[in-house]
Write a structure and sequence with these properties.
By secondary structure, the protein is an alpha/beta fold. It is 52% helix and 13% strand.
Length: 288
C-alpha cells in the first residue's frame, strides 16, 4: 500500500511539472509617441515568448507607422524618428500580426503593465479581451523591498541603455524569472496574474470616485456621467432640483401655517355666533 501511494505521488508530481512547463508567457514592451495612452500611439512592439523554465520560444520586433507626431521628449528617449517609420505598417496591421505570432499563451508580462494595458485598450475599446497580465514592477516592489530604484535598467544592469522594445522585453523576462526564485516554491503564484481590466489607467478626464459618491448621496444615477465636467454639471442640476423641492416644501408649510389661523378664526366666529343666538333665544323665551 505504501509503495502504491509513493508511486501515485511520483506520478502526480510529474504531471504538475509537465503543467508548469506548458505555462507560456510573453514579455511585452511598447515604444510610443508619448506617455499618455489616450492621446499617443504605439510605434514599436517588442516581445519574447518563453516558458516557466526560462526557455525562449520566440522573439518579435516590429516598428509601426503612427498617424500622429512623436513628442520630442519621447523621441529623445527611444531615438525613433518619424522618418524611420515612413514605410512601416499601421498599428492595426502590426497588432493583428503580433497576436497571430503569440498563439496560445498564459499571460503578458510587462514592467509597469498599466502602461501597456492602456495602449492595448486603445486597440480594442469595449471589445477588449480579458488578457492576463503580470506586472514585474509591482512584483519587484514587493519581493525586493531593499532596492533604491525599480527602473528596469536598475533591476537588470545588463540592460544598460533601455528604451527599445525588444531589449526591454528580454530584460523583463529575465526579471520575472529572477522574481520567481524569491518564492519558496520557486513558482509563480496565481495572485500575480491580473486581469487587464485591473491594470487599465484612469482617463484624466474621467469622473472621480468622490464625484460619483456625491451623486449617489444626492439620489442621482452615476451611469449618466463619464467625465469630470459631466459629473459637475449633473451635481449642480441635482442640487438645484433638491433646492426646488426644499423651497416648494417650505412654501407649502408656510401656506399651511397661514391657513391654520384663518381656520381657527372661522371656528371662533362660528362659536361666537352660536352663543349669541342662544343668548338671544333665552331672552326671547319669557315673551313667547
Amino acid at each position: 500500500m505504501q509503495r502504491f501511494v509513493g508511486l501515485l505521488l511520483v506520478v502526480i508530481e510529474r504531471e504538475i511539472n509537465k503543467k508548469e512547463l506548458t505555462m507560456i508567457y510573453i514579455a511585452l514592451d511598447f515604444e510610443t509617441t508619448g506617455l499618455d495612452c489616450f492621446s499617443n500611439q504605439i510605434i514599436e512592439i517588442g516581445a519574447v515568448k518563453f516558458n516557466s523554465n526560462g526557455d525562449i520560444l520566440g522573439e518579435y520586433q516590429k516598428l509601426v507607422k503612427p498617424s500622429c507626431e512623436i513628442e520630442p521628449g519621447a523621441e529623445s528617449v527611444h531615438k525613433i524618428s518619424k522618418a524611420m517609420l515612413t514605410n512601416e505598417l499601421s498599428i492595426v496591421e502590426v497588432w493583428d500580426d503580433f497576436i497571430e505570432w503569440c498563439g496560445d499563451f498564459s499571460a503578458f508580462v510587462a514592467h509597469n503593465a498599466s502602461f501597456e494595458a492602456g495602449y492595448i485598450y486603445q486597440l480594442y475599446g469595449d471589445d477588449l479581451p480579458d488578457f492576463q497580465l503580470i506586472d514585474t514592477l509591482r512584483m519587484a516592489r514587493s519581493r525586493m523591498p531593499d532596492r533604491d530604484s525599480y527602473k528596469l535598467t536598475s533591476l537588470i544592469p545588463t540592460l544598460k541603455d533601455g528604451h527599445r522594445a525588444l531589449p526591454d522585453a528580454l530584460a523583463t523576462k529575465d526579471l520575472l524569472l529572477e522574481l520567481i526564485l524569491t518564492y519558496k516554491s520557486k513558482k509563480l503564484t496565481k495572485t500575480q496574474l491580473k486581469s487587464i481590466y485591473e491594470m487599465l489607467p484612469t482617463h484624466p478626464d474621467e469622473a472621480t470616485d468622490r464625484q460619483l459618491n456625491y451623486i449617489e448621496s444626492l439620489g442621482g444615477d452615476t451611469d449618466k456621467v463619464r467625465t469630470k465636467q459631466e459629473a459637475s454639471i449633473y451635481i449642480d442640476s441635482l442640487l438645484n432640483n433638491n433646492k426646488s423641492v426644499v423651497k416648494k416644501t417650505n412654501t407649502q408649510h408656510r401656506n399651511l401655517q397661514q391657513q391654520q389661523p384663518i381656520e381657527a378664526d372661522s371656528n371662533k366666529s362660528f362659536w361666537t355666533m352660536l352663543l349669541v343666538c342662544l343668548f338671544v333665544l333665552m331672552l326671547a323665551i319669557p315673551f313667547m
